[in-house]
Amino acid sequence: MTFAKILTELPGPNSVKILEKKDSVARAFGTFVPSIVDYAKGARVWDMDGNVFIDLAGGVGCLNVGHSHPKVVKTIQREVERFTHTDFTVIPYESYIELADRLCKMMPGNDLQRAAFFNSGTEAVENAIKIARKATGKRGIICFDGAFHGRTMLSLSLTSKVNPYKEKMGPFFNDIYRVPYPNPYRWNGTTDPEQVSQEAINSLMNLFITQIPPSEVAALIVEPIQGEAGFITPPKSYLQALQKICNEVGIIFIADEVQTGYGRTGEFLGSDYFQIEPDIITLGKSIAGGLPLSAVIGKKHIMDSAGDGAVGGTFVGNPISCAAGLAVLDIYEEEKLGDKARVIGNQIKNKINDLKEKTPLIGDIRGAGAMIAFELIRDHETLEPADEETLEIIQKCLQKGVILFKAGLYNNVIRFLVPLVISTEELAEALNIIEESVIEITEKYQSDKLIGAER
Fold this sequence. Notes:
Layout: H1 13-19, E1 37-41, E2 44-47, E3 52-55, H2 58-61, H3 70-80, H4 94-106, E4 112-118, H5 121-136, E5 140-144, H6 153-158, E6 176-179, H7 193-210, E7 217-222, H8 236-249, E8 252-256, H9 270-274, E9 280-283, E10 294-299, H10 300-303, H11 319-334, H12 337-356, E11 362-368, E12 371-376, H13 387-399, E13 402-403, E14 405-407, E15 413-415, H14 424-447
Helix pairs in contact: 3-11, 4-11, 7-8, 12-14, 13-14
EC number: 2.6.1.19, 2.6.1.22
Catalytic activity: (S)-3-amino-2-methylpropanoate + 2-oxoglutarate = 2-methyl-3-oxopropanoate + L-glutamate; 4-aminobutanoate + 2-oxoglutarate = succinate semialdehyde + L-glutamate
Cofactor: pyridoxal 5'-phosphate
């Protein structure tokens, strides 16, 4: 059985009719797939012309339970008939309280006992920072090279990548301090993970000497695995060392789990994978099966320091989204999605490792669970990014019915954000298409003598 089916040129005629009206949409909202979606199920998407795509992007990591999971759909249908909005601070509802209770019980450690819900990952980050500042009375925030925390102004100030996110968007927030994140593949002088980890820790300690003392730092925020930077995966000892330092000097330790949460790493949280216990955790993306919802979950004394009215918003913690969030937790547990993520990750890694032997384009393969990425380079000594080749591979895959998503500061990383409900057969077909496309692009550029034939 073939899962991906491209029946027309992309876009097909029915999509073209709709896309002719796209001039009314702001150009900032560029689109990758040149088709109009008709419907989607599990890990596949059908467009208006009957073309079928295997979706390895998952709505940029929002669909760990897949497209239109029956349990999520049924929950939404039931709840929307009851009521759609009250604002929780005006009239509370059970789904908000129940979701908060269940998530608090799933957090690492024994002290993460308060939850607040918002609409998006960037809102969760903004509010986590506000709560940390309120709790400590301190101003400084430490973040990292390569970080992505969102696009509203405070979270954008924390985000590292300039183009397309920050160029001509300033001025940005004050009291933001940035240190290197340990990337063994691109660390000057060594590839030894423990040495890289120690040198990165040394950079943080030097920050306390040269820029801001710990006594003036409210919080340190970190992605356990950096998403937009290309799934940069630190040594486990690094995050554990960060937590220890923060605990010793009184800095609130925030883990941004918007992308690493909900089974993506093979554990419910990236924090579980790295065996750390943050003071605050932010969640989003897959929390409600594609509906807008995010969360800030933290220690009781920190979260309660904000006080009535200090954080919130009209639509935060929407009742339909909270109900969907409860359905997602049921699915996660019943379908053992953490276990599935590890199986998916092994299937991807085995295929890409085999592919690496067939092409000089692949440099590094990294990640945890199903959160896997591979970096494309033109030269294994200089690590020159193969950005054009990466884009061409993604486009070739799209024309063959596989939706992929790029990442990396140099736009040369292909990352997998696969719905965790994907079948082994669907994923195998998609990986074969990726292999075929990588080989085709390798042969094209080798013939043009733009990449080396040997590693």
